[in-house]
Amino acid sequence: MTRYITIILGLFHFLAGAQHTGKVDFTEGDIHIEITPEKGLIAGKVVYRFKVSEHTDTILVSSRALQISEVTWKGEPLNYQAKGNNLMIIHTFEEGLYEDLVIQYKASPEKAVYFPGFTTTSFSEDPPVVPGEGGKQVWTQGQGKYTSSWVPSFDDMNEKVIYTMEILFPKGYELLASGQFQGKQELEDKTLWKYALKKPVSSYLLAFVGGNYRKMEERSKSGVPLEMYYYPSDSARAETTYVHSAEIFDFLENEIGVPYPWKVYRQVPVRDFLYAGMENVTLTLFSDSFITDSIGFSDKNYVNVNAHELAHHWFGNLVTEESGKHHWLQEGFATYYALLAERELFGEDYYYWKLYNSAIQLIRLSEDGKGEALLDPHAGSLTFYEKGAWALHSLKEKVGVKAFRSGVKEMLTTYGFKNIHTGIFLETLSKHTNADLEEFRSQWLEAPEFPEEEAVRSLKRNKFIRKYIEVHEDDASPVVVYNEYRNLLKEPLYFPLKQMLLERASAWPEKLRDSFWLEALRSDDLYIRQGVAMAADTIPSSLKKSFENLLDDRSYVTIQEALMKLWLAFPDERYGYLERTKDLKGFEDRSLRILWLGLALFAPEYEEDSLRFFEELQSYTGPGWQFETRQHAFEMLFEIGGVTKRSLLNLLQGLDHPAWQFSRFCRTMFDRLVLKPEVRIQLRTIMPELDPALADRLRSKLDSIKLESH
C-alpha cells in the first residue's frame, strides 16, 4: 500500500509542478563539470539562483537520462524525483529569491555530446583517429538534441539564464565554451577552463568543444574579437576557409543596425557534425567538410554557413522564438541576412540566383500539394529557411528598406534577451509603415502555397534573371540560336545562364555542339569551362586536347568530371591522366582522391601498387575519417566489387553513427550488400566479433532474407 501511495503522491507533485513552473524564474546558473572523454562520461554539478513569484511545492528542471545523485539548497538535502525528461524538486518554496540550489549528477550522453576519436566501437580494424584529420574531439549539439542531456537545464526556450562554466578536461587540448574566457588552471593531468556569459540565454545555445586547435584572430570594426580555429594540419587552408569573416561581421552589424550582442565570437570546425553549422552563443561549431583551399573555394566554401550562424546571434540568440510555431523568426531571418551578406560579397546576380533556385523548389512543393505555412510548427527546413527568407525579401519590397530596417532594429532593441512571436514582429514593424501587414501575414505566413506570381515579378526585376527565364523558355532550333548563344557566352552575365546554354548544347547536332563547346573551353571563365565538363557525356576527339587541359583547372569539380570522362573515352591514355592527377586530394571529403584510387586499380601500369592503393581505399571507410569520406569510399568499393571483412566491419560501425545522414546511408548500403550470398557468408563469420546487440540485429536480418528466399 505504501508503494501505491508514493506513486499517487509523485503523480500529484508532478502535475502540481507542471502547473506551477510559471511561478519560478531561473536567473543564473554555474556549471562545474569534469569530462572523461575516453569513457564518454560527464560528472559534476550545477548551481542555480532563481526567483519564486508565488508559493509552489515543486520545481521542474529538464534532465534527460542524467543520474542525479543529490539535490541540496543551502547545503540541506531536498526530495526529488525523475519523471520522464524532468527532474522534479519537491519542497515548499515561498515567494522570494533563492540561491545555492545545487544539483549533483553524472551523465553518459547518447546524444547532445559526441566524442569522435575518444570513443568508438571495439570491432573496427581501423583506428579511431587518423593523423592530420582533426584528432580526438568532444563537442556538443544542444538544439534538437537537448542540452539537458549533459547538464540539468531547460528544454523550454522561454527560460533564459546567465550561465558560467568551469570544465575540467585532459591536458594537451584546447577547451572552448560559450562565453568570455575567464582563465584556466593547470592541474596534475587536467586543465580547468573557465568561461562566463554576461547575458541570459536559452539552454540549447550552450556549448563546449575540446580538441587540438590553433587559431587566427581579427577584430571587427566595432572592436569585437573574432577567433577562428583550425586543425594544426590545416594551417595552409585556414585563411581561405575563413576569408570574408570580418567583412561578414562588419556588414551584419551595419545592416541590422544593432551591435553584436556578445563580447567575443568564435568559430570552430568539428568532425562528423550533425548539420552544416550551429549558432551556439559566442561559439559557432561547423562541419569540417567546409575547410577548403583556394582551388576548392570556387565550388564549395564556408561563406554562407559563416554568415547564417553569425546572423543567428541576433535572430535566435538575442531574440528567441516563443515556440516552434514561430521558428521562421530564427531560420528565415538568418537565411535572409546571410543572403544579404553574400550579395554584398558576390553581387546582385548571385543574390537573385539563389532566390530563383529556392523559388523553384518551393513552387514544386506547392504544385505537389505539399506546401507548408511558415506558421506551421511542423513545417520542414525548406519552408522555415527558404520560404522564410523569401517572405522577408517580399516584405522589404512591400514596406521599403528604411521601414524594414527600422522595424527590425526596434524589435531587437526592445525585446533583446527575451522571447518573441510573429505578432510582436509585425506589430513593431507596423509602427514604421502604412503597408497592409495583414495581407502579408495571410499570403506569406499562413497560406501553405508559395506566392509564385509575386515571387516571379520580384525576380524579374533583375536583368540576369529576366534573361535566364527568357532563354530557358525559348525552344528555338540549334541553328537559330547558335550565334545568339555564342554572343551570350561573351556577355558579362552570371555564369549559371552560360552553363545552361552549354548543357542545352549537349542535345545539338554533333558539329554545332562541338564547335560551341570548343569555344567555351577556350574561355578564361572557370565556370564556363566547368559547364562543358559537366554537360558532356562523352568527349569527342576534336575536344580531347581541350578536355585534357581541364585536369589542371582551378576547380576540383571540373578536374573530377574531366578525369572520369577522359578515362572512359580514351583508354590508351589512362595512365597519363592518372599520373597528372595522382597528388590531388580534392575537397575535404577526398572525393577526388577516392575516384583516382578506384580508377588506378584498373590501370595495368599500377599493378605493383594495386595492393597499396586498395588498402588506402579501404582505410577511408574507417571511423577515423569524416563520414563524407567514408561514404565515398563505401560507394567506390561497392561499385568495383571490393567490399571485404574490413570494410564490412566499418559499415556495421556506421549503422548507429550519430550523424543521421551517414547512419541512413550505411543502412541503405547494408541492405544492398546483404542481398549478395557471398556477403551474407562473410557476415556470419564476423558475428562473434560484434557486440551481442548488433550480432542479434544482424542475425535477425540474415534470417529474414533466408525466409524470403524460400
Automatic annotation (TrEMBL):
Coiled coil: none annotated. The keyword Glycoprotein does not apply. It catalyses: Release of an N-terminal amino acid, Xaa-|-Yaa- from a peptide, amide or arylamide. Xaa is preferably Ala, but may be most amino acids including Pro (slow action). When a terminal hydrophobic residue is followed by a prolyl residue, the two may be released as an intact Xaa-Pro dipeptide. Residues 245-444 form the Peptidase M1 membrane alanine aminopeptidase domain. It is an enzyme of class 3 (hydrolase). Its cofactor is Zn(2+). InterPro entries: Aminopeptidase_N-like_N, Aminopeptidase_N-like_N_sf, Peptidase_M1, Peptidase_M1_aminopeptidases, Peptidase_M1_dom, Peptidase_M4/M1_CTD_sf. GO terms for biological process: peptide catabolic process; proteolysis. Residues 30-205 form the Aminopeptidase N-like N-terminal domain. Its EC number is 3.4.11.2. It comes from the Bacteria. Keywords: Aminopeptidase, Hydrolase, Metal-binding, Metalloprotease, Protease, Zinc. One of its GO terms (molecular function) is metalloaminopeptidase activity. GO terms for cellular component: cytoplasm; extracellular space; membrane. The keyword ATP-binding does not apply. Belongs to the peptidase M1 family. This is Aminopeptidase N. The lineage of its organism: Bacteria, Pseudomonadati, Bacteroidota, Flavobacteriia, Flavobacteriales.
